[in-house]
Amino acid sequence: MAKSKYLISTVTGQIPNIVLHTETDSLKGGLILYLDDFLYKDSIYDTQNCDISLRELCAINKDREILLAFKKSPKTLFSKRGNFKLSKERYSQILKIMKPDFYLDYSTLEIISTLENNSKLEYKFVEPKDCNEFYELAKKGGYFLGTNFANEITKNKQMIKFENNKLEVVDAFDCTCCGDLEKEYLGYLLSINEINGFTYLTTHNYNILKEVIN
Question: 67 and which of 85, 102, 190, 210 could share a cystine (Cβ 3.0–4.6 Å)?
Answer without folding.
Answer: 102
